Amino acid sequence: MNPKFQTLFQPITLRSGVQLDNRVVLAPMTNFSSDAQGNVTDDELAYYARRSNGVGLVLTACTNVTRNGQGFPGEFAGYDDRFVPSLTRLARTVQGEGAKVMLQIFHAGRMAPAALVDGDVVSASAVAPVRDGAEQAPAPAPRELSGEEVEEIVRAFGETTRRAIESGYDGVEIHGANGYLIQQFFSPHSNRRTDRWGGSLEARMAFPLAVVDEVQRVVAEYARTPFAVGYRFSPEEPETPGITLDDSLTLVDALADKGLDYLHVSLMEYASLPRRASDTAQSRLEQIVAKVAGRTPVMGVGSVHTPEQATQVLDMGAEFVALGRELLMDPDWVAKVREGREAELETVLDVEGQDRLVIATPLWNALVNTPGWLPLSKKPEAVTA
Ligand SMILES: Cc1cc2nc3c(=O)[nH]c(=O)nc-3n(C[C@H](O)[C@H](O)[C@H](O)COP(=O)(O)O)c2cc1C
């Protein structure tokens, strides 16, 4: 190994006692490949097995904590005890390859496609999401959750955590990022409530913090071996009103005192600067690291392609670096860097390599047909998958 990449390979023990072999994490990625009932399929297990040998930690794709929390077709479910066997198979597969595994738990809220949730699309308030392409049809406004329903969803995050414990996971990651329900409660765009769950910045933090408290209560009650809890968030929204970095630093300050195992900063560019904030000259990640001030480990992510960039994330003060698309294109990324073979990293998606890369067809088709997602070895029109 090139000694300059050594920091990536330092083991770490999380606050919960979960031990990771190194600092590289498989980012959570939905793969659209579960069966119609919401069970993990053999294709998904093969995909995860191929990507679990080398990273210290695997974060699974998101799983929905209630029936109407489903955000994607082919998403595996976590909202009922009948899914414990399916969830168990996934945990064992990853651990069998040597990595630790955390289940990402979420509710899609107003981002749920109506057809997947019998038309019952819900959110903090009846405000439709902003669509970013003119070609997209305007989204319908969701139904505002009652106070009682909000409390039921908080409990549902706890119930799915209990199932993760029963299924043998090493932890759960609370998905408070990327515009889904937890973020919808924190956002002044989607949360216009005037009860205890909305209004002031503090009240908009009530739902995220209630989910954390409930998940930690369940862990304390049920986990008999070390079980980690992480929290993922997106620090800014483009809309006005929308979450600003200053808002997020207030949330981070509260989360950093919760005794979590890590905070995961969901960014498309790990070194990106804030859009609007008191300080727009320092990167979002570094401002968050400064606010946390050593209280909780931080995980960076976003367009980390090379081991130099991965090391830079750690140099910016994060304890972990997650890789998403690079591990789709090259599942051997970690092994190659560890063995000093970084010159062999695959940096484009080999459009003829679906079998070799072990990516099931629903995800494969999305990757080769979504312009701008991944660099492809050939032009999309030449792809026949
Ligand atoms: C196909 C795909 C599926 C994704 N699914 C999820 C998901 O289920 N949960 C989540 O938090 N982020 C999801 N993401 C975002 C990634 O975790 C990651 O933050 C993003 O891809 C940026 O990292 P990268 O540049 O290393 O790919 C997904 C990304 C991709 C490309």
Automatic annotation (TrEMBL):
InterPro entries: Aldolase_TIM, NADH_flavin_oxidoreductase, OxRdtase_FMN_N. It comes from the Bacteria. Residues 8-343 form the NADH:flavin oxidoreductase/NADH oxidase N-terminal domain. Keywords: Flavoprotein, Oxidoreductase. Pfam families: Oxidored_FMN. The keyword Oxidoreductase applies. GO terms for molecular function: FMN binding; oxidoreductase activity. This is NADH-dependent flavin oxidoreductase. It comes from Deinococcus gobiensis (strain DSM 21396 / JCM 16679 / CGMCC 1.7299 / I-0).
